[in-house]
Amino acid sequence: xxxxxxxxxxxxxxxxxxxxxxxxxxxxxxxxxxxxxxxxxxxxxxxxxxxxxxxxxxxxxxxxxxxx
Amino acid sequence: xxxxxxxxxxxxxxxxxxxxxxxxxxxxxxxxxxxxxxxxxxxxxxxxxxxxxxxxxxxxxxxxxxxxxxxxxxxxxxxxxxxxxxxxxxxxxxxxxxxxxxxxxxxxxxxxxxxxxxxxxxxxxxxxxxxxxxxxxxxxxxxxxxxxxxxxxxxxxxxxxxxxxxxxxxxxxxxxxxxxxxxxxxxxxxxxxxxxxxxxxxxxxxxxxxxxxxxxxxxxxxxxxxxxxxxxxxxxxxxxxxxxxxxxxxxxxxxxxxxxxxxxxxxxxxxxxxxxxxxxxxxxxxxxxxxxxxxxxxxxxxxxxxxxxxxxxxxxxxxxxxxxxxxxxxxxxxxxxxxxxxxxxxxxxxxxxxxxxxxxxxxxxxxxxxxxxxxxxxxxxxxxxxxxxxxxxxxxxxxxxxxxx
Lengths: 68, 405
Ligand code: HEM
Ligand code: SF4
What we know:
The complex is a heterodimer.
Chain A: E1 2-5, H1 15-19, E2 24-26, E3 33-35, H2 45-53, E4 60-63
Antiparallel strand pairs in A: 1-4, 2-3
Chain B: H1 35-43, E1 48-51, E2 57-60, H2 63-71, E3 76-77, H3 103-109, H4 115-134, E4 141-143, H5 144-149, H6 151-160, H7 168-180, H8 184-207, H9 213-219, H10 230-244, H11 246-260, H12 263-271, H13 276-289, E5 294-299, E6 303-305, E7 308-310, E8 315-319, H14 320-323, H15 358-375, E9 380-381, E10 388-391, E11 397-400, E12 402-404
Parallel strand pairs in B: 2-8
Antiparallel strand pairs in B: 1-2, 3-5, 4-12, 5-8, 6-7, 9-12, 10-11
Helix pairs in contact in B: 4-6, 4-15, 6-7, 8-9, 8-10, 11-15
The structure holds protoporphyrin IX containing FE and iron/sulfur cluster.
């Protein structure tokens, strides 16, 4: 599984970074999400799923497959 | 002078959508100004309604409509929005500018307020919290608003702006008049005074720049490499003053009132002191429940929205406190759950104007909770005081909260 972030609608709330710093951080200019992990390890999938639901902008999606 | 942004008389409003509601009017004896908003929902008024008070404006009560009000800037603009309508009104940079032009100042400010930037401020915030607590800890009581919640964000503002701590009384006085005075003449003079202080400050930073926020704003360049317009620079400084002081003060005051009456909540924060994620989740729930700001929008064109006719220049209020307790969105919306799993509150707004200062605000509050609970783990309302001098409007709160330990 991997996470796709839509940077056009991300507004830098950083809820993702707060909830799951293992996978998400934010950039130092606009404070938008940076997905740091290409393939989400199995033991983090539930946490990432919950984090995706906590993005106030709906900017994150958890999808099957690896990063291209 | 021609007025360009005045709302129409409410002929277009269906009579069953008109409610008699004045959001500045807090009934005597009421100690929680958010209640006037929640009562609307209890009374079952339409989720989109119009009130003739304060120049006439709409109110959105559903979370989904509030979010649309934030996101759909083509229909709901932040340009020229004051309620009651006042013209001319300073255009706050970047809050009062619609996309895409809002980007210029938003990009100028955002690097100074990212989570990374705020992490670097944490030590200083801790020191400030402890320093303030030093001034009253041994007395075993304080007025939380006067002795802490007003001072903390104002002192932080001074430091960020590269101003000396000796100017705290001057800024406190300016802020207090700005946020509290109801006398139009006093208010007008106060705005003039604030702009004069900002003008002097930015001139000094222009001549002798440092690494502070005021210097960064004044050194910002537009796409042609020119300094931004002086008015825009002043209006950006003014916005930071307006946006970052009273909001934090009143949010803190609400939170401390809750903590004073909830030993289990205090215990929760104490037991999670070393668990950053759990602390942030609990803080986020306090932010959901204690949403002190009501945001304004102006309708950009005659249109139909959710089956209702709106006219160009109609004003709309987005009350976050109501949206945050919409039971269509939040499970057990009225309950405070410090472990809440999904919490997409709108306390800091959403969309293009999402609060730039949210990370700083949350850090100020969490650092304060932790410093306070480390030193004063048990405290209660003094003599059953539940807060006094409640006020409504764009930012809600109360002016005094006596605590004892
Ligand atoms: C608990 C405290 C705070 C609350 C509840 C709050 C709330 C908000 C909200 C709801 C907005 C959106 C405005 C809109 O959509 O029209 C906003 C914008 C803004 N806030 Fe805050 N705020 C807080 C603290 C701060 C602090 C500490 C700062 C700065 C140091 C700050 C700076 C700003 C700025 C610059 C904007 C405008 C952003 C833009 O238009 O792009 N806020 N705030
Ligand atoms: S929570 Fe959503 S909007 Fe906020 S930074 Fe993360 S992805 Fe972006």
